[in-house]
Design a protein that fits this description.
Helix content: 40-55%
Number of strands: 9
Number of helices: 11
Bound molecules: flavin-adenine dinucleotide
Shape: globular
Length: 392
């Protein structure tokens, strides 16, 4: 196994076995593109509270969207490994707010795995170019962890459906124009009454975007409220060939979503360590560099050890997922443990920056704020522990 050559490769680990030569090239290409095209705009986007719409088409042109979708539907014909490489590059670049991992790794797979041939041809190529931006609307003001409690309904009407309800905290909410909505087609049937409905937001009367929500972190993520009032949908808006499959579809796809969050966590941990090691080598106190204090060395030695353990476990999960062998229990462990670790390591790194670590102009400060939500979304870490406990 060869060593990875990135300046961000702060862990003394060989490349994982699943990292083939074409993935090494993809990693370099992604890093160059993100550093050149996106990183210089991060501050402006954070100030604006949203990234430019053009990031999506630029990312599409650069081959960074839907890399694991088959070529016949406009994707790059890769595997989950391609998504993992791109998502790590996004995290290493400090683009924590970019919703592309959700677009490519969560929304597109719903269409690929459950859509009809017509639906796949209609939506996937445009998701790959960034003409369409995906969102997944599960959470409602009254139902987050308990998804069976959603109140949004898709009522049968003639040949189609009428959608009513409101969603909140939806990633890509302002830009999204292809929204997978969790709705009840049979409100009395519990989990068996849940279906996934696809809304083409550009051409839909009764659909309205609410507030772009102000948040603790991820400043340029356009997390938003969405409203559906008597939205008329054609029969083809239903994902899958029969109603009531939504819950099973969600449970099948959620392990990948959880691993995607784990990849972001490990990427952000690597970035935090790199930034911190560079800083403590420069910063002087009591006549010596901060890294020369034994405390600094011990803290960073602990962080590097735990990050290494986390990365090895993460790569084990990716490798199993490429073989389609990642189970819900292990994916939940990855999400819970890696995001907890991220919170802990970023906090300890920030401490080593002293007062500068609290200043917005230092990326470690933003990373501290951005890290917090990782333990909440994609299923809270408490829900992850419930899922793990089922295997005991
Ligand atoms: C920035 C951001 C982006 C998001 N993006 C999306 C998105 O794109 N799409 C989407 O659908 N949602 C999204 N969410 C929503 C997110 O997935 C939910 O916030 C999350 O699932 C928790 O739901 P909740 O907020 O309703 O909390 P609640 O379910 O009300 O939970 C409150 C607390 O109770 C705990 N709890 C709940 N049930 C149990 C239990 N059985 N046992 C023990 N503890 C429990 C929780 O862990 C939590 O600590 C996003 C959220 C944020 C903040």
């Amino acid at each position: 196994m060869s060593q990875s050559g990135s300046p961000m490769d702060v862990l003394s680990l060989p490349r994982p076995a699943w990292m083939t030569e074409d993935l090494v090239l993809l990693e370099e290409q992604a890093r160059r593109f993100l550093d050149g095209e996106f990183v210089p705009h991060i501050d402006a986007w954070n100030e604006a509270g949203i990234m430019d719409r053009s990031v999506w088409t630029k990312a599409g042109e650069a081959g960074l969207l839907c890399a694991s979708m088959p070529e016949e539907y406009g994707g790059a014909g890769g595997t989950f490994a391609h998504e993992a490489v791109i998502n790590r590059a996004i995290a290493l670049a400090g683009l924590d707010s970019f919703g592309a991992p959700l677009h490519s790794g969560i929304v597109a797979p719903y269409i690929l795995h459950y859509g009809s041939e017509e639906q796949k041809k209609r939506w996937l190529p445009k998701l790959a170019t960034g003409e369409l931006i995906g969102a997944i609307a599960m959470t409602e003001p009254g139902a987050g962890s308990d998804l069976q409690g959603v109140k949004t309904t898709a009522r049968k009407s003639g040949n189609g459906y009428v959608l009513n309800g409101s969603k909140t905290f939806i990633t890509n909410g302002q830009h999204a124009n292809l929204i997978v909505v969790v709705a009840k087609t049979d409100p009395k049937a519990g989990a068996k009454g849940v279906s996934l409905m696809v809304v083409e937001a550009d051409h839909t009367d009764g659909f309205r975007r609410g507030r772009k929500l102000k948040k603790l972190g991820m400043d340029s993520a356009d997390t938003s409220e969405l409203f559906f009032e008597e939205v008329k949908l054609p029969a083809e808006a239903l994902l899958g060939n029969e109603e009531g499959q939504g819950f099973v579809q969600l449970m099948t796809e959620l392990p990948q979503e959880r691993l995607i969050v784990g990849t972001a966590a490990i990427g952000m941990i690597e970035r935090a360590l790199r930034l911190t090691i560079d800083y403590v080598k420069e910063r002087k106190a009591f006549g010596k560099a901060v890294i020369e204090f034994q405390n600094t060395q011990f803290v960073l030695a602990e962080c590097k050890s735990e990050a290494t353990i986390g990365k090895v476990f993460h790569d084990h999960c990716v490798e199993r997922h490429i073989r389609r062998e990642l189970d819900t229990t292990t994916a939940s462990m990855a999400k819970y443990w890696l995001t907890d670790l991220q919170g802990k390591i970023v906090d300890r790194c920030l401490q080593l920056f002293g007062g500068y670590g609290y200043m917005d102009e230092y990326p470690i400060s933003r990373m501290y704020r951005d890290a917090r939500v990782q333990r909440i979304y994609a299923g809270t870490n408490e829900i992850m522990k419930l899922l793990i406990a089922r295997s005991l």
